[in-house]
Write a structure and sequence with these properties.
Helices cover 16% and strands 43% of the residues. It is extended and about 120 Å long.
């Protein structure tokens, strides 16, 4: 009993001298009294929310253990670190021959109400997964500080550096806590000025144009380049180095890049300090090391020339070309290292490319990962290398390009791990599958159809076999079209792609407004088409299509041409085509070309007699990151033979998506002089210029804007109505506009606005249309 009084007296004295009971017990108060004694009991007091058993379960100090000051100190630190306790005291006393420990805790309050206000630019939903505090959680100051930092980071990403987060704590009657986070967003902090120090060869304006940042302009809403984004700007120093090195400044160095607040704290200055150094010219070029395949071939791979200004881009192109050349000889792990010999006095640099071929290897196995839905065979058939074949860098590069072009995978990665021997490697193909199915519901507006609805379901990877199938229904006031197609890209395990189609179309022009020629046309048909690869990018196509058409319900005031074609007609059509396609992908193309010529003949097996020919050129040119320029030009001609006129429904009337936006379907056409209705031409020319760009402030993949200009015209003659028009530049229609395209996770979304720049009397216009979809 006397010993207990001494212990408590010492505890009181230590508390008065500045030590807490925890420190006292942990630092040696009971060294002579408690140490070496077994812990016979541990009690918890003061807890309201946390069960005693839960607290005790986390302790290293256990009943039955010999009391240890260091272990107890660790337990105390761990409890504090949990953030659940505002205060914690530990008392120890003798209990028989052992020690009883008492953990007296004061818990942090329990959050029963949580609110956030003032956050308009970043929603609570966007941040909630990262926030530690919410209803049903025990409050702690550490968690509060972490949450304020999380909120700040979310806003800083969008350029809000003036953000202030004000937490307000209100204790309720039951001791719980109501926490309100008041967010004061402030204004977006822009870049007021970009400064360059040490630049002599290039002006501030020239350098500013190269970096990702830009100064606030008159229309800052159109771009977010003037918004502070530290991750994006971190690469600006490398961008400047590469720009300088492409102009001969081999020794250039960005010594520092710094952001500093303006005096009014409303914007930032961005400052780059540069050391340019001299401009170097290339004095001599050579190769050394492993001469594989030969010295002459390696020298031919050099894209640089002696005497030219040094360019790091040319250097990289040479290294890539040499590595590819050596890799095609089976040396998968070759390395090409440029060795520089500077002559500072003459400001020249000699470059020797040191080639180390490594070991020759063969493909032991092709391993495929990530294809949960797609059969291995779909991936293997796109490989330009086979198992047991010698490695080829070009073959592997083409394999990756072919797999990407399928549009079945978001990402394709190829690794070359070691095989069972030093001269064996495994081609490890890792793919990330994309959504290949879609269900699209779209709507468009026109003067003829009023509202046109489209429902389409498609799948590019049926049964995981790579089959492409689609069912489409277009329903409007005038037109109802139903189409079914199925494509096997490797028909009968060959490189031939086969497509089977069935379609049914009903056109009820007696429901149209503003027309004199009223009639109903029903078409039903189908066909089979084959695409045969001639080379890596050249394809030959051949096909047969049969269509049964019936024109009826023609009104008395209809065109004489239309009346002459009343009744049933059949078209037996054989077609051929030749195409050249280097596009990197079929959907969302960023680079490459697509050219084609085609000719078709309608004859035996049908009533109609005509031939048709056409040509199309299209190209995609990347201007910068996510900025793409696309241009296209297409022409067609159709002529009857054997005294049979071309059917009115095969003649050319253009307008709408795919030809000239801003004009309706049949909006541009030759017209019957008696009725004013479109009868079409027998020749047409269309062209388009599209500029795709990332949409401001939207970082979503597959989302982009497009500014476009379309042009086109039709001309020719029609014998029965004696309508004739020669090609005329003045008759070319043109339109311009902009749109939004998004290959979203739930399907394609498109919006388009167009305004005609050149039009003719009688043209039918369409200004706006949109489409919505859902992917699966």
């Amino acid at each position: 009993m006397r010993m207990k009084r001494v212990q408590w007296l010492l505890l009181c004295l230590l508390v008065l001298s500045g030590y807490s009971p925890v420190e006292a017990l942990a630092k040696g108060l009971a060294t002579s009294v408690l140490l070496g004694k077994p812990v016979v009991r541990i009690e918890v007091t003061g807890n309201r929310y946390i069960e005693s058993a839960a607290l005790l379960a986390g302790l290293k100090t256990k009943v039955g253990d010999v009391f240890n000051r260091r272990i107890l100190s660790h337990d105390i630190q761990k409890l504090y670190a949990s953030g659940s306790y505002a205060d914690l005291k530990v008392f120890g006393e003798r209990d028989g021959d052992g020690v009883k420990l008492i953990f007296h805790v004061k818990e942090n309050p329990f959050i029963t109400e949580y609110h956030m206000d003032g956050n308009e630019e970043v929603t609570y939903k966007d941040m909630s997964r990262k926030l530690k505090l919410k209803e049903g959680v025990i409050f702690s100051e550490a968690k509060l500080r972490a949450d304020i930092n999380t909120i700040r980071k979310g806003y800083v990403k969008k350029g809000y550096y003036q953000l202030v987060v004000e937490p307000v704590k209100e204790f309720l009657a039951d001791g719980s806590l109501k926490l309100t986070m008041h967010v004061h967003e402030g204004e977006i902090t822009h870049i007021r000025q970009i400064r360059f120090i040490g630049n002599q060869a290039f002006s501030d304006a020239e350098l500013s144009d190269k970096v990702s940042a830009s100064v606030s302009g008159l229309i800052p809403w159109f771009s977010n380049k003037d918004v502070i984004d530290t991750k994006k700007f971190a690469n600006d120093a490398q961008i400047l180095v590469e720009f300088y090195q492409n102009h001969g400044f081999l020794d250039v160095n960005v010594e520092s890049s710094q952001l500093s607040l303006t005096p009014d704290k409303q914007a930032f200055y961005l400052t780059f300090a540069l050391h340019e150094g001299p401009i170097y010219h290339v004095s001599n070029l050579d190769v050394q090391g492993d001469m594989e395949p030969s010295r002459d071939q390696l020298l031919e791979a050099i894209t640089m020339e002696e005497g030219q200004i040094y360019s790091v881009s040319d250097l990289r192109a040479t290294i890539e070309a040499m590595s590819l050349l050596v890799g095609d000889e089976g040396y998968a792990f070759n390395s090409v290292t440029p060795l520089f010999k500077r002559n500072i006095e003459n400001q020249t640099v000699g470059i020797v490319f040191d080639v180390e071929k490594g070991r020759e290897v063969y493909i032991e196995r092709i391993e495929i990962e990530g294809n949960a839905k797609t059969d291995d065979g779909i991936v293997r058939r796109e490989m330009r290398l086979n198992e047991s074949q010698r490695y080829s860098a070009t073959g592997m590069k083409k394999s990756r390009a072919a797999l990407t072009k399928l549009s079945l995978f978001k990402d394709v990665r190829i690794a070359m791990p070691r095989g069972s021997a030093d001269d064996r490697v495994n081609a490890k193909i890792t793919v990330e599958e994309d959504q290949t199915g879609s269900f699209i519901v779209g709507a468009g507006f026109s003067q003829v159809e009023k509202v046109l609805f489209r429902v389409k379901t498609s799948e590019k990877n049926l049964f995981g076999k790579g089959y492409a199938g689609s069912v489409t229904a277009d329903v409007g006031k005038v037109t109802q079209n139903f189409d079914i197609s199925l494509t096997d890209p490797y028909f009968m395990d060959t490189n031939v792609a086969a497509t089977v189609t069935l379609n049914k179309t009903q056109t009820n022009l007696n429901r149209a407004v503003g027309r004199n020629s009223l009639y109903t046309q029903n078409d039903f048909g189908g066909g089979v088409n084959f695409s045969i690869p001639v080379s890596e990018h050249v394809y030959y196509g051949v096909g047969y299509n049969y269509t049964n058409s019936n024109i009826s319900n023609i009104n008395a005031g209809a065109s004489f041409l239309l009346k002459s074609q009343e009744g049933k007609q059949t078209t037996s059509l054989i077609s051929q085509s030749l195409s050249y396609d280097t596009r990197d992908r079929f959907i969302g193309t960023t680079k490459g070309y697509q050219h084609s010529v085609d000719i078709s003949l309608a004859g035996p097996g049908g009533v109609n007699r005509f031939w048709e020919a056409g040509a199309n050129v299209k190209g995609f040119l990347p201007i910068a990151d996510d900025f793409i320029l696309s241009g296209s030009l297409a022409g067609k001609i159709i002529q009857g033979y054997s005294g049979v006129d071309v059917p009115i429904y095969r003649r050319y009337s253009i307008g709408g998506i795919g030809s000239i936006r801003g004009f309706d379907f049949y909006g541009i056409s030759l017209r019957d002089p008696a009725t004013g209705d479109p009868i079409g031409g027998d020749k047409q020319l269309t062209g388009a210029l599209n500029f795709y760009f990332p949409f401001p402030y939207v970082q979503t993949s597959g989302f982009r804007g497009v500014a476009f200009m379309d042009m086109g015209t039709v001309w020719g003659k029609e014998n029965l109505t004696r309508v004739a028009a020669k090609f005329s530049v003045s008759a070319i229609r043109a339109s311009t506009g902009f749109g939004i395209e998004w290959i979203s996770p739930v399907g394609p979304v498109t919006l388009s606005w167009a305004k005609p720049l050149r039009k003719q009397p009688g043209d039918i216009l369409r200004g706006f249309e949109f489409g919505l979809g859902r992917a699966f």
